[in-house]
Amino acid sequence: MAATDSPSTAVRRRDLCSRGIRLAGKMRADVIDLLDTYVEQQGLDASATVGVVEGVPLAAVERWDEQTGTQRLLENLVAYRAFRALLAQMLEEQREQLGEADAGLGRALAAVLLQVSAFAYHLEELLQLESRGIPSEEGDGPPPLPRLSLFEQKLRGLGVLRELAQWAVRSARDLRQLSKPS
Amino acid sequence: PQNLKCVTHNLHKMLCTWDVSSRGRHGQTDFCYTTNDLTPQVCFKTEETRVEIPVPESSITVAVKSPGTASAIKEFVIHQKDISFVPVTPHILSLTPDFPTSTLNLKWSDNGLDFPYGLDALWQIQILRKEAMEEVTKVTYYSKLTHENVILSWNWTSDMPLECTSHYVKIRCYINATQFVGPKDWSDWSPAEVIPGKDTEPGGSGVFPLDTVVAVGSDVTFCCVHEEDQRITNMTYGSKSYTMMQLSSRSHAIRVLNASASNSSGTNVVCRLENGMDGSVVFVGYAPDIPQNLSCETSNFLIIKCTWKPGRPSGLYGERKTKYSLFERISSKNVSCEVNEINRDRVCGFPVLPDQKTYDFILDVSNPIGQAQSSLLVDITQRVHPKPPEKLTVTGNNSTSIQLRWFINGSFAGIRILCQIEIISGHSEKKLQNISMPGGKFSSYTAQLNELHPNTKYQFRVRCSAADHFWRWSDWSRGVDQTTSEAPPS
């Protein structure tokens, strides 16, 4: 945190953090629901092991305790920007493959994408509070995704949603850490 | 010399061979032949125990003197019936795979130039598969020789994807030379041509067919190609595990019989390996039904609206969904139709063309599994179904008559319009009055209603259609109320 926090900044940070924590909680619940729908609709095995999906940042982090507030926010922002692009890709593939069928899954995906976008914006607000410039989006987005086979697309979607659920948990922890008085 | 045998490959020349004792094997042999009394004897020397000489019409006399002064001349009379006819081994020109359809295309030359016109030829084509080159099928193909070298072409569709394992093709032929009296036999098999499977490619792996579409009820073979050192644990189709067949050390397959319709995201075919998994998705659906009750009409002489009953849903969605297009033969104009597979309303719009009354429509319906068509020949002036009249207003009124005006959206200048006015008076007496008039272009129409009762409340509404060749009434317009004025004092 900035060495000398003005009272209003501290209050503002706590407010943004608590709202962020609630948003992360809601997002996690929705992602878990979406995961169930996704697994069933895509005919996947819920216990299927999915390797590391290219372009999906891992929520697990070593020496979590030692991270600074800004590091936490920056890592979160990079992750949610990546998820935004990946979910948009999934939505596009969904439309391409299913068209009007299973609009329910499409709507659920779009809803989670909206939440991820909102959360990313939220993180940007927090970073501004840290009087930190917001990293530009060019260049750090996920690499263009290779054209995958349909089964690989299904598995990647599973991997993206699982990792997003993990990130929602981590983000809540990060924001709780951030909202503690330093 | 003994055991003289002669074989011809082209009915013109024949190759004769003979045995000699070990003593007579070195040095030059004197060889002479005469085909009949009229032609002079032909002689020559040869180091070998085989010669190529003409095939005789009936017989040929051959004299052979082995090397060495002491050996005697040995004479043979070879009759045509003693000569065997074995066609030249066919040469495969090309073997081309089409992976999406698992089809092999074989091309070869029939060497017809060597033979008289019109001979029947039989070709046996053998397909082999797997590392052990097991025979899959042997097919006989018939052709007629035309005294020209013709390239023959033949297709074969495998019951499994060509990527699964190597496919080999061999061919041999038999020519029914009816004039030739000697024994006839099949040629030798050609060398095998191969289409290598993915299981022979370094790093080749995956489940095949990849992301394909098949018809409900199909029997489908899926294979899993993996690295040599990877052990495959199982293969599932949907949620069911299947018994695997081994095609090679790097390829295993399962056979799914009578595949049932998949859900919208397709059925997963998953190959589980010791350290990972691979998979494919198959979409099992129906070919489109022939569209029923194709009907076309226009409401405004700008757009022709065609509707139909689609029949059974295809079960295919997104980029595999059934596509519709409307082709009009007279103008050769083609329109693709945007159709929602879910709410299943089937409508397609086609522009009314200047100076064209008759339309010869073909509705083409297709998806990756099949295609169907319906056609309709229609005179569009006989298929007018206007929109409900709008802005119905009273424009004139006295004690016994009322004038109405309304607007119809559309360009009806070429036809007469028939409108029906519904008159409901206060004591719920309902009357219908028809009136016809020349059609106009996006114009209003008027009607005068007479013999009404004074000081009476009336409710009017109107609907219209084509006057000549009635097709359908429009819906009723909105109603309008009007009370006639009081009768003037008499």
TrEMBL record, chain A:
InterPro entries, per the entry: 4_helix_cytokine-like_core, Ciliary_neurotrophic_fac_CNTF
Gene3D superfamilies reported in the protein's UniProt record: 1.20.1250.10
Function: CNTF is a survival factor for various neuronal cell types. Seems to prevent the degeneration of motor axons after axotomy.
Protein's organism: Lanius ludovicianus (Loggerhead shrike)
Single GO molecular function: growth factor activity
Compartments (UniProt record): Cytoplasm
One GO term of the biological process aspect: astrocyte activation
Primary residence: cytoplasm
Protein name as catalogued: Ciliary neurotrophic factor
